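Researcher: Last one for today. Full complex below.
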Amino acid sequence: MKKHLAVIAAIMVFLAVFIPLASSNPDGLERVVETFGVEEHAPFWNGLMSDYAIAAIGDSYVSTLLAGVFGTFMVLLLGFLLGKAMASKKSKILE
Amino acid sequence: MHIPDGLITNTPSITTAIAMWIASLTFLAWSWKKAKATYSHSITALLAISSAFVFAAQMINFPIAFGTSGHLVGGTFLAVLLGPYAAMLSMTIVLLMQAFFFADGGILAFGMNAFNMAVIGGLSFFLIKLFTRGSSGSRRFIPCVFVASWLSVMAGALVAALEISPAFADGIMVTVPSMLFYHAIIGLGEGAITAVLISSLQRVQPAIMGGLTLLKEKTKL
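Model: Here's the assembly. Have a good evening.
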């Protein structure tokens, strides 16, 4: 358990250190779309924190970091539930 | 290489999106069935933490060249750690969170993105298994991890290029070469990061390598 918490803490440190260093250039697919001048229509779903930013927070570093930490914990939670569901095949719980 | 809904513009692209939803759901149903039957012990902690790491790592774009960036996808990384089935499901969780909360990758396009990254990433496991003869102790293991990571990005980019082609006037004639060009470079980053991560994990914590155990156990297809 201690080790797990240490790894989770390390992921947070990783985000805190690397978010300001991350490239803001378009990725491969975005580059291809831009190069050939394809017009994207507006998406019908904009997400709750579009582009990894919390609208209410002005500072872009803090905003992205908090969005990243939130996302990391959401994935952690869903991954945990998935793992539990996968392992529960033999221990049938009758309710 | 997350495809946004904004690129789904006409009937052919909507048809493609629906077809890829069906394809991905089929693979995910298969991997769910196999995952429940395959893992004899709980991999919950490893699955949760490695998925969380992949989510965090995908946020960090590294510059390649030509004013373009790329980021780790992590499909092969998860496949080596968790085996192919749990890796597909794990990556799907990452993509789901990205699409739902952060609008990174579309909702209609989710089937495409799940196929390009989760399904292909998971399937890269079998490439490593084939070329290492199922042994992580093989001298070829880390080079295989590198090559499989690169190929998983290239295969994902190729399928993505076909999927987004209806939005382009010149179709696959432009999308395929240009997607493959950028992702050949991005894939080198994927291969290098995955190889370093796996070889360090192998040295530091060999016991947690669930997928590696699976490699030895001769996974049944």
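Chain A is about 55% helix and 0% strand. Chain A touches chain B through 56 residues (CB under 8 Å).
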